[in-house]
Specification:
single chain, about 350 residues, 12 strands, globular, binds pyridoxal-5'-phosphate
Length: about 350
Amino acid sequence: MIDLVSDTATKPSAEMRRFMADAPVGDEQLKEDPTVNRLQEMIAELTGKEEALFLPSGTMCNAIGIKVHTQPGDRIVLEKYAHPYTSEAGGPALMAGVMITLIEGKRGIYTPEQLEEAVPGYSYHSAPTTLVCVENTHNRGAGKVWPLETVNAVADTAHRLGAKTHMDGARLMNAVVASGVSAKDFAARYDTVWVDLSKGLGAPVGGVLAGTHETMERARRYKHMYGGAMRQAGIIAAAGVYALEHNVERLADDHTNAKTLARGLADIPGLGIDPDEIETNLVFFDVNDTGRTAAEIVAALKEHGVRMGATGKYRIRAVTHLDISREDIDTALRAVGEVVVGRG
Ligand SMILES: *Cc1c(COP(=O)(O)O)cnc(C)c1O
């Protein structure tokens, strides 16, 4: 099966597993796991923050990122298709008790002017805006990288309005590799930022949240409260260390494969996609003109040994990653051609 549903599909390689097996471990709750500590130092360094905290998932990175900057009843700002709004099970409402103002961006990118318009000025009638979030790259925005100037301008506007800033960097390293802008530069004006280890980087578990010592001290309490504090977690943190050392530069291959896939899809009659818009590893295409729904096409592709995801009635997502080769892309394209044109 060629699995293009998500970049979470990667399996730890034999070398990664060996590195995990050999990792020194201790009790991470007592800050005594050397491998967890090493991973946290690597991410702090990478993002230019004082401290970082290893968490079991990216979802918990967002949950805690939102929690540490807000009080119940506050307003947070998210882009309309941001992950905490679409895919975190109502967590911001339950765990942080916040209300959400949505901004519709262009492929996930919004402007400081839109932020300013969306947020009411101070009045005791309205909820105070205490957090503004961006997602880089933007998942539903088809892996769009935030331009550095825009991401900086949004943060500056947020701070001027009295809000903190949080960057969902589930695929921050994809943004870094695609743009040449460092993680440190992307995150410089963000109070918290996190990186997912279990997406394109190829580790099986985890995300790492970063910010100031003071913020991370409070984040540590919520990690405990939400049940995210572990024990000899070095055995999984080791996969993250390995991933950061071996799997960052190669994200460029995923981007090339995504581009190749997009170009091939654009040549298939009935499919809607602009290959020029593909910047990283996420490929979305429309199937309106095929006479079939996304779900029907996805089901037929599965029969051909290719998995993709239906993300809308007529929209399909395909994601390249570490376990997808150039040959897999050619095979996937042949399968899509057979299904869509040959009505296989
Ligand atoms: C996957 C993802 C998350 C959640 O990460 P998990 O590790 O799956 O919990 C958050 N934000 C974005 C943009 C994502 O793509």
